[in-house]
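#struct-help
A.M.: can someone run this one for me? Single chain, 116 residues.
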Amino acid sequence: MSRFGVFLAAVIALNGCSLLDKMVYRIDIPQGNYLEQDDVDKLRVDMTQEQVIYVLGTPVADNSFNSERWVYLYHLDPNTGKDYRKELVLTFNDKKLQDMKGDFDKPEEFTQPLDQ
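D.P.: on it. Structure tokens below:
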């Protein structure tokens, strides 16, 4: 009977930890590049990489295998609620912006270079 009592006490104690886990505050830690649609709307085809960095900032991680593809990723795992994740992938050709994909709307004027 004493083994069963120890086992029962251990199960109750471990179950209590999971209940306390929901009451403990955890700080929200955003990771990556936070972008807004207003910033993405400034992108135009044939922008240089330096111009894109001026508008959006540098990507968090460099892609050492393909310098012509930049990924801007933002992730937030809040203390309550569901995860928030946004991604923007920019494709360059000869260091000039050619295309964009991801969770943001493509700007209406994206196909018009800045020079015009």
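A.M.: thanks! The chain is about 30% helix and 25% strand.
D.P.: also worth noting: The helical segments are 2-21, 37-40, 49-56.
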